[in-house]
Amino acid sequence: MTGTEDVTESRLLLAEYDRLKEEQNTRIGFRDNLLYFTLAASTAVLAIAVQSEQAQLLLAVPVICLVLGWTYLVNDEKISAVGCYIRDQLGPRLAELSGAHGAVFGWEVYHREDPSRTTRKRLQTVVDLFTYLALPMICVTAFWCSSAVQPLLVIVSLAQTLALAVLGWQFLRYAER
Q: Model-level pTM?
């Protein structure tokens, strides 16, 4: 018996499932750590700006939030895409091959039916918007109200504001309902 004789479509699909769940779990950990890192980096910049009394440093917070927020959003979308692929493609195909009655990988559907899920998702969206949109906009506004305002930095801050608006729109667009 050669190594290829025991390779079946079902085994390949189960191996794909294992790799996808591994990727999903890795992305979840990375995404969640991005939130903490964003808050830590923003706090550090705020502390330096306040201690040094250099309001222009506040414009570093939007850059941090834009880069890490976009990374957070991309990972969050991929986490959802993996779940959707498992529910809509992989599970049904494996159920068909195995002759299973009912859903394969039931957790992928079951956990989404929790009555509190919608509330949790909405609250998470609020936290995401505060972290990646409101916090940097507070810094931009504080810069605008400071004596450090210079024409070039105002242009930079306006560009940041536009970019933050796009990021906020993307967060709302991808918020799972």
A: 0.86
